Structures are given as structure tokens and as C-alpha cells.
Amino acid sequence: MSEQFAFKAEIQQLLNILIHSLYTDREIFLRELISNASDALNRAQFEALTHPQMLDAGIDLRIDIKADEDAGTITVSDTGIGMTHDDLINNLGVIAHSGAKSFIEMLKANQSGAAAPVQDLIGQFGVGFYSVFMVADKVRVVTRSANPEERAWSWESTGGDTFVIEESERSTRGTDIIVHLKADARDYLQTWTLREIVRRHSNYITFPIYVDGEEAPANKQTAIWRQEPKEVSEEQYNEFYKMHTLDFEDPLHRITMRADVPFQFYALMFIPASAERTILSRRTEPGLALYARKVLIQEYNKDLLPEYLGFVQGVVDSEDLPLNVNRESVQANRVMANLKRSLTGKVLSELKRLAESKPEVYHKVFAEFGRLIKQGVVVSPEDREPILPLLRFPSTGSTHAEQWTTLTEYVSRMVKNQTDIYYVLGDDFGSASRSPHLDSFRKRDIEVLYLIDPVDPFMLMGLTDFEGHKLRSADDVDIDLRDIGEPPKDESEDEKSAPLPESDFATLRERFAHILGDRVSDVRESKSLVDSPARLVGEGSAPQRNMYRINRLLERDAELPVKMLELNARHALIRNLGAMLAQDSADPLIDVVVEQVFETALLQEGLHPDPASMAQRLYQLMQAATRGSGDPS
Ligand code: ADP
Ligand code: MG
After folding, report:
1. Is the shortest distance between the CB of 75 and ligand 1 below 6 Å?
2. How far apart are CA 232 and CA 254, in angstroms?
3. Where do you find CATH 3.30.230.80 in the chain?
4. Which of 59, 337, 443, 477 would you call most buried, defined as having the most Cβ atoms within 10 angstroms of its Cβ?
């Protein structure tokens, strides 16, 4: 009796492309079949720990590849977990698996815009089981589940829109994939070709792979993370990394670790080259692969590293995790807490070392993952100290956004009597560098950090001081720079432009306060502004003041923070406005200018909720400014 099923629509789409295109990288189909066999063996090995009554509990764990010249087939067999009737339908027809899913997403992206042609991409990431249809015109799967109550089943398809399932025979548990090669793919019948492909793409599969019944396995099968680092070449590590993640770029950095006390474990970790890993990566979730005594017990373990280091990829293999654990209790095991501490410490110290020895490589790491690292300051306060040396910021000393300083370097450049570290928040380098808050700092040559990353306000919740120096926002009401640094050389020059007379300023202040109402907490004369007419200053603690930005980061609605408006009584605009007010307090232009001064200050803070709304008022002001210059009216 046979049953026929239709492939899910997106799998049909995938098959259609795989069958009807010509690829240069076709040999990767074998890597995919071997990888599935290895997964199935891993699962069988894991199940055997808790279900000794499973079928063929003591069977050799191995993968066999056999070619049959006459039939034109190659068969990939494993003694893994096998599949039931329903597994076959779901896993090989209905549910698109990781590699295939990414591939389909890629195709959709391709259709809607320009991207690399499918041909170039196919070898770069797994398209899973279905990639076999690049070389096959018919595939038959014979499988028997490790569940002793199940019987054997077969699955067959010619890569059209349907597949057929039938009862079948198989004496032991496991799976055979019988590949009927297309006429143009008969090269793969040769033993040496198969051996070459195995070595090229599957050398580090930990189960032995035998080609055509040869006695020695074709793959090395060493767990690469257990090898002495000096015995493994850079290429081999990178090859393993690519197999593990399916990234096509080499990692930026590699971290090897082995420990004997208090627990024995091996770790091999990598920093990927890019944070973009939605489409081209097999590893769609964060987490390290966890092995206990060479048995894979979790593909994505999220308890080995803190969340903010979730970008780190790799493998941890512990001798001390009990083998009879179930996946849930791994988390509760005390060995795990210990592993996490060691691994986290190692990653952070390696990053620091990298920053010192290869600053250009660390620069890339921070550019990709700095945003995550910064979050660690807040979410993992216990790691704060080792994270601080990893932080990088642009500052008033930078000419562009990626010219960074460390906090230590900043401190080393502090001027006379300076004890605090100053920063200014902004949306980007340009707006931060034009911030009115910088006037008085620039005048005294005091460096100010630019905190222009959206996560910076959040980071500040955990970064209140560094080596005894308080971090202070340049917009802080209480900052007094009078005794810090050298007195400005051009002070006398400033004095040349006399401030608005006191009584006129008081009237002007009144007018601002009246018009702006509760949009500002107060209006006062500034002691620090030089080139800017006005600025908004903050009061209260940094987290309080930054709540608006933090909420915006979390995409939550938030009320605009109410700040104090400072006016520069020496600035021509403020003096003119004061004079206008003294002359004719009913001049309608006054209120328009007051509004625009306030909104411009909001804009400079990166706080204006709707900059386009200023357009009308700006036209009105420009019209007034051009009045009398040849305008007939
Ligand atoms: P992925 O390996 O990313 O899950 P594949 O397309 O390679 O996606 O495989 C689809 C699914 O088919 C696997 O997840 C697994 O459940 C099942 N499968 C494939 N090959 C085997 C095999 N040799 N033994 C057991 N199950 C298999
Ligand atoms: Mg697979």
C-alpha cells in the first residue's frame, strides 16, 4: 500500500530551482546528507543514555557511503535515530528545515531586489536534504526508527510536486538515502571522488564515514576542539567554523580553551565576522553547542555564556557533566554555573588581549558587536569591570564616528583639575559634534565623549563611574568648569560683545517662560554658551534624564522630558530679540522666534518629535528676514 503526498509549496519552489539549474558546487549535497546522518547519530547516542531499551542500543555508530555502478546510485547509510512514518512526512516534505528555510527566504529577497545570483549562493549555505536533487533524478529513503515499536518505511520522490510513502524492510535502526544520479552526475560513482568530497567537507564529523566498505574511515573524525591548538592549522579551524555555522567568511577571532581543574572541559569559540546572520547562517539561534564526553547534548545552549555575548559561536565539551542528564536539568547543574564563569572570563580577557595586540581586528569586533558588549555593563553587572576596557567611543578629539577612544585613554588626557568624564548624547556624530553643550568644553580644551549609539543611554544605567571618575553629561545644569583646565585665551574677546542689559534680559526671560509654559522647567541665563544662542539642560540623575531615549530604544511611547532652557545673553540673536521686545513688545515676530529657538534646541538634543512641523515657521522667519530686500510689497 502506498500513500502519495504533496510537498509544501515552498519546498516545491525550492526543488524546482534545484532540479532545473546547473550548479558548480553540486558536491555539497554529500555534505548535507552526511550532516543529517551525523545529526541522527548524535540523537541516537543521546537517546541511548536514557532509553537503553531502544532498538539496537549497542550498534556501531557509523556512516557508510556505497556506490553502485550498474544501478547508477550512491547510498548514504547511518545507524542513527531513524524516522517513523510521520517523521518522514513532516521532515521530508512538509516542514522546511533550517538551511532550506534560509534558502527560500533568500530566494524571496532575490525576487524583490538585486542580490547575488542563486548559483553563487548555493554552496555558501546548506539547503539541507533537498540539495540532493541537484544531482539526483530520483531519491529513495529507507528508514527504521529506534523506537522498537515502529517498523521500516520508505519515501520516494523524483523531485516533482509529490512524494510517496510505503511500508518497507530494514533489519536494523537507521536510514539509507539512495540517490539515483542524473546522467551528468555519474562522476560521483567513483570511490576516490567520494573520499575526496568527504575529506573536503566532512572531515570533522565525529562519527566514522566509510566509503565503499573500506576498512579505514575517510574522515579524520577528531573532535577538533580536543586537539592541541598547535596541531591544528588556521585553515582547519576556519573550515570547522564554516561547517559549524555555515558562514562563508572566516571568523574575526578564535578562542581555544582547555581546563582540568576544577572541571575538565574543552572549548573552541569564534567571533564571527558579521553580526548579520539572519539569512546566510545555519545557526539561527544564539548559543554554543554543548557536548558531554563527546556526545552532543544541546545544539544551542544559552547558559554557557551571558546573553550579551550571544554572538560568540562554537563548541564546549565537558568531561564532568553527568551523561544521564536530560536537557532540562543541564541548566540546573552546578558544573554549568562554573563553566559559564570560566567561559565568560575567558572571552572577555581574550577580547581585551585582542584589543591590545591587534587593535584593527578588535575595531571590527567592536563595530559589529559593540552594541551587545555595551549592554553587558547593565545586564551583567558582575562582568562590568572586565567589560569597561572593551568600550570604545568617539569624542571631541575624533574626526569621524569610528575614530574611538577608550575610557583609560580619555582619563590620561584629562586637563588640570578635571576629575569627571564628560559625555554628550546625540543621534549621530554630526549632531553630537555640533551640540551647544560643547561650547564651554571646547573653549577650555576639555575632551567630551560622544555617546551616539542608541544603546548608550541604556548603557549609562550601569556606567556611572570609571576608576573613580564620575561620568557626567555635558548638559548637566550643575557643571561648573571655571577651575578646570587653562582659562580660555580668548576670554577678553568674548567680553567685547556686551551681554543684553540685565533688565532687558529679565523681560525676555519672562516672555520665554510665558510662551513655553510647562514645556520647560525654567528659563535662565547661561554661563557656558559661546557660539550658540540657547540650549536645553537636564536635571536629576542620568537614568531619569535618559528615560525618553531608553523608551525610544525599546520602542515604547514616552513623554518628552521637560528640561531647562538656557539663553546666551551675549549672542547676537538673543540681544536682537531683547532689543525688539524693548521697542515693541507686541511685534508678532517675537513669539515666533521664541518658539523656534526652543524647537531648535530640541532638535539639537535629538529630541524633536516632528522636525518637519517646523517648516511653516521657518518660511515665516525667512520671509521676515528678506523683507525690504527688493520685495515690492
Ligand atoms: P536540517 O538538517 O537543517 O534539519 P534537512 O533538510 O537537512 O534540514 O533535513 C530535514 C530533516 O529530515 C531533519 O531535520 C531530520 O529530521 C530528517 N532527516 C534527514 N536525514 C535524516 C537521517 N539520515 N536520519 C534521520 N532523520 C533525517
Ligand atoms: Mg541537514
Report:
1. no
2. 12
3. 224-363
4. 443
Euclidean distance between CA atoms 410 and 301, whole angstroms: 38
Pair 246, 125: CB distance under 8 Å: yes
Amino acid letter for position 552: R
Which helix (H) or strand (E) segment holds residue 108: the answer is helix 98-112
- Higher-confidence residue: 293 or 484? 484
Interval between CA 326 and ligand 2 midpoint (Å): 23
User: What gap in Å lies between CA 578 and CA 567, rounded to an integer?
Assistant: 11
DSSP 449: E
Model pLDDT for residues 31-83, shown as the tens digit of each residue = 889 989 999 999 999 899 888 899 999 999 999 999 999 999 999 999 999 99
267 strand-pairing partners: 257, 316
Q: Are strands 313-318 and 288-292 parallel, antiparallel or unpaired?
A: parallel
Residue 364 Cβ < 6 Å to ligand 1: no
Could you give the C-alpha distances from 362 to 79, 166, 350, 625, in angstroms and in order?
44, 56, 10, 51
| Fold entry, domain 224-363 | Ribosomal Protein S5; domain 2 (3.30.230)
Amino acid in position 546 = N
Burial of 286 (0-12, 13-18, 19+ CB in 10 A): middle
* Distance of CA 48 from the midpoint of ligand 2 (Å): 22
pLDDT tens digit sequence for 472-508: 999 998 898 989 988 776 655 555 578 999 999 999 9
Q: Please report which ligand is nearest the Cα atom of 103.
A: 1
Atom of ligand 1 nearest to the CA of 130: 6
CA of 283 to the centre of ligand 2 (A): 12
Q: Return the sign of the alpha-carbon dihedral for residues 215, 221, 226, 230.
A: positive
Q: Which amino acid is at 147?
A: N
* Residue 162 confidence (pLDDT): 97
Ligand 1 atom at shortest distance from the alpha carbon of 174 = 24
In whole angstroms, what is the distance from residue 125 CA to residue 523 CA? 60
In DSSP notation, 387-423 reads HGGG--B-BTT-SSTT--B-HHHHHHT--TT--SEEE
User: Where residue 328 falls among pLDDT bands split at 50, 70, 90?
Assistant: low
- In the three-class reduction of DSSP (H, G, I as helix; E, B as strand; rest coil), residue 564 is classed as strand
Q: Which CATH class for the 3-211 domain?
A: alpha beta
The domain made up of 491-538+561-625 has a fold known as: Four Helix Bundle (Hemerythrin (Met), subunit A) (1.20.120)
Greater confidence (20 vs 214) lies with 214
The three cell numbers of residue 55 are 532498538
Type of residue found at 308: Y
Q: What phi-psi label fits residue 584: left (phi over 0), alpha (psi between -120 and 50 degrees) or beta?
A: beta
Residue 33 CA to ligand 1 center (angstroms) comes to 8
